């Protein structure tokens, strides 16, 4: 059988992959886009729940994110909506539930948040250049170790870890530098960083944006085509699919989640640091669950330290057909049952810690940790990887390039990071093909 040849093979049609494929194809290059799932978008996924479309994966964006805002404006999707306005806040600390206004909660957590991240701008004065300053002294520090150094009481620590719980899965496994870098990206302020990561949603949802990006691409899309191996022999990149098909290209962009890279044989071998990062995996095994609560109830926020409550963060998001939809972030996806009835029971029980008579009538989620083509949630790097292996993997590996939210130079783990990473990889490939006169 004749092997079909392309200028570029892009493996993975998440946000990084579709941006890279679009940008390359509009430059006149022949591109094949290989996606293991039966849809594009990756961990950005709009599904059906509660009789409407719901974001079951990444869904929050911000006008300060250059790649995302450019795409939203060019396609006419730049109307963003916030969650329901809620002043009532609950926080689990020192073994009991506290309640008050948002200002009262922030008085309990804000000072220590500032202490934790006080040197963010000094560590990353130019966030787009992650190694502009030598941070070797903090490279191996875990977030737990950094929190330990603050000398907090049990109550203060729980307030602080609750404030981080929308992003953090396990402080002992996360490197401290990524939180510092994320805060530095948004002017040294964690609350600014948190706003970009989880407040503003696209009114029409992410799917129309994904469809619009794909409509601009002339890449040949092959769905349900997982890849088993990628080989650079010095002249060509050969890609073999699990089904046994062979594809040949002058260059390749690998844009799959870090936790699935180990399922693909890559030749030549990657650097020891990169291989170690792939083997260690992204530690975030968290989940995003939507809860439909009976009736229009007073909006509230609730926060708990990761590991001390099934739901680490809860927020009233919107009203729908007479009920209230809540966003629930779960530090451990394994604590949330897959059975729908049991999941309702567990989520309702967790929410009743804050509001005793609340009634959960339905839930919806996608478990990214058991999904074969993600095997984890958003990225929070282990110690040493953000400035080390992640920076290394972004460099050209012969004819093979890498992209994705997990290894993004800015906004790691976010849709913006994926878009920026895909665009950067496409630019690198264009320059490489020009250099080799392809």
UniProtKB/TrEMBL annotation:
FAD binds at residues 35-36, 227. The keyword Oxidoreductase applies. SUPFAM superfamilies: FAD/NAD(P)-binding domain. Residues 15-429 form the Amine oxidase domain. GO terms for molecular function: monoamine oxidase activity. It catalyses: a secondary aliphatic amine + O2 + H2O = a primary amine + an aldehyde + H2O2. Its cofactor is FAD. InterPro entries: Amino_oxidase, FAD/NAD-bd_sf, Flavin_amine_oxidase, Flavin_MAO. It comes from the Eukaryota. Belongs to the flavin monoamine oxidase family. This is Amine oxidase.
């Amino acid at each position: 059988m004749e092997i079909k040849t392309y200028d570029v093979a892009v493996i993975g049609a998440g946000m990084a992959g579709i941006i890279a494929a679009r940008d390359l194809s509009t430059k006149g290059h022949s591109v094949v886009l290989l996606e293991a799932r039966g849809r594009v978008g990756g961990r950005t996924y709009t599904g059906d729940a509660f009789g409407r479309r719901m974001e079951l994966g990444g869904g929050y964006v911000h006008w300060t994110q250059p790649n995302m805002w450019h795409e939203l404006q060019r396609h006419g999707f730049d109307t963003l909506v916030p969650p329901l306005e809620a002043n009532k806040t609950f926080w689990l600390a020192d073994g009991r539930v506290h309640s008050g206004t948002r200002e009262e909660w922030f008085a309990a957590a804000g000072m220590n948040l500032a202490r934790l991240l006080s040197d963010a701008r000094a560590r990353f004065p130019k966030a787009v250049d992650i190694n502009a300053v030598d941070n070797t002294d903090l490279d191996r520090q875990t977030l737990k170790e950094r929190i330990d150094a603050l000398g907090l009481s049990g109550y203060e620590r729980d307030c602080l870890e609750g404030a981080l719980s929308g992003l953090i899965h396990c402080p002992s496994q996360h490197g401290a530098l990524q939180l510092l870098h994320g805060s530095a990206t948004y002017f040294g302020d964690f609350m600014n960083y948190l706003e970009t990561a989880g407040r503003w949603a696209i009114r029409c949802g992410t799917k129309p944006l994904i469809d619009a990006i794909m409509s601009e691409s002339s890449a040949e899309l092959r769905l349900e085509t997982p890849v088993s191996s990628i080989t650079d022999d010095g002249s060509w990149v050969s890609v073999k699919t699990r089904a046994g098909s062979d594809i040949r290209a002058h260059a390749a962009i690998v844009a799959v989640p870090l936790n699935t890279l180990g399922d693909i044989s890559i030749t030549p071998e990657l650097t020891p640091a990169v291989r170690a990062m792939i083997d260690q995996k992204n530690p975030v095994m968290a989940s995003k669950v939507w809860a439909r609560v009976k009736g229009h109830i007073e909006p509230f926020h609730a926060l708990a330290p990761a590991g001390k409550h099934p739901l680490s963060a809860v927020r009233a998001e919107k009203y729908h057909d007479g009920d209230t939809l809540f966003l629930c972030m779960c530090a451990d996806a394994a604590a949330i049952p897959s059975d729908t009835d049991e999941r309702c029971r567990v989520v309702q029980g967790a929410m009743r810690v804050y509001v005793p008579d609340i009634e959960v009538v339905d839930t919806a989620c996608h478990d990214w940790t058991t999904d074969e083509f993600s095997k984890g949630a958003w990225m929070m790097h282990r110690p040493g990887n953000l400035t080390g292996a992640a920076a290394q993997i972004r460099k050209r590996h012969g004819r093979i390039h890498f992209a994705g939210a997990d290894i993004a130079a800015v906004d790691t783990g976010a849709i913006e990071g994926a878009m920026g990473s895909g665009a950067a990889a496409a630019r690198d490939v264009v320059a490489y093909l020009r250099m080799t006169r392809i």
